[in-house]
Design goal:
alpha+beta, 5-stranded mixed beta sheet
């Protein structure tokens, strides 16, 4: 009797695994049904290999991390799927209201509860990522202006090497990085209506629609008033699996000590697709001889 019960439990467990795998495969098949919602050729600037550590060297699977920034964020960090509170000026009260946030309830709450409510309140939305467009060019132009202002303010020679790098040197490095190896993928908008967003951003090779998370930040000003701002917490899926058929193209870069870093032009390009469920997949990888754009 006991053996029969154990066999039933085992069979039930196997059936659950099979059903789960079938559901995953069905969802993946549906995602790739018909024409992709977006198809764009990204490079190593936007899809980075993770650093190789320990047993990762023996792992046959390859996952590329999506690198992106957010329009208007001052010195915004790159994202890797981790929550980071980055305040965006275009995520104003009107935009937050359209995303489903109840802003009125925060204004009347006490300080402690309001801060916690803002921090804990998050909504899933569709984020619009622009590739190699105005947002990227604006970021380059902003750094160029900062560098020009720094050079005008400090025309004298740079400080000795024993001192910390001058502001001009730092800006030179940042600008060169942004021009040669920095991502050109920027979050520029958010919404709930996928069809409306696609009508507004029609070009699927320039504008990618992906699921992400938006939240709130409530900060006090001079200890009295509060500034309510929108926060992009990141994409729901910030990485993409590379099929084993394309491993050979990435193999030369897998054994590098710092494979997750890029110090020059990109070394490979990736055919990046988004399907019916706005989930990504890779349909091709190409090595770039001598670096590429």
């Amino acid at each position: 009797m006991k053996g029969l019960k154990q066999r039933r439990i085992l069979l039930a467990g196997l059936a659950l695994i099979l059903i789960s795998n079938a559901v995953v495969l069905a969802m993946a098949a549906y995602n790739r049904l018909g024409e992709p919602d977006s198809r764009v050729q990204l490079t190593e600037r936007e899809l980075r290999l993770p650093p190789v550590r320990g047993f990762d060297k023996e792992n046959s699977g390859i996952t590329l991390m999506l690198r992106y920034r957010v329009k208007g964020a001052r010195d915004a960090p790159y994202f890797n799927g981790r929550d980071r509170d980055v305040q965006e000026p275009w995520l104003d009260r009107d935009k937050l209201t359209t995303l489903g946030f109840d802003l009125g309830s925060l204004s009347s709450a006490d300080d402690t509860r309001a801060r916690y409510t803002a921090w804990a309140t998050r909504r899933e939305a569709i984020l619009v990522l622009e590739y190699d467009g105005d947002a990227y060019r604006e970021a380059v132009a902003r750094l160029e202006r900062q560098l020009a202002e720094a050079e005008a303010a400090s025309p004298q020679a740079d400080a000795p090497e024993s001192r910390p790098p001058s502001l001009r040197k730092q800006l030179h490095v940042r600008l060169n990085t942004l021009r040669t190896s920095g991502t050109r993928l920027y979050i520029i908008d958010a919404g709930l209506d996928r069809a409306a967003l696609r009508r507004r951003y029609t070009d699927g090779s320039r504008y990618l629609l992906m699921k992400g998370t938006v939240g709130l930040s409530l900060n006090s000003i001079d200890g009295k008033e509060h500034a309510l701002q929108g926060v992009i917490h990141g994409l729901v899926l910030s990485s993409v699996h590379v099929p084993s058929a394309f491993r050979v193209q990435l193999q030369p870069f897998l054994d590098k000590k710092h494979s997750g870093q890029l110090d020059g032009p990109p070394r490979y390009a990736v055919e990046f697709n988004l399907g019916q469920r706005l989930e990504p997949w890779v349909s091709g990888v190409m090595a770039l001889s001598g670096g590429g754009d």
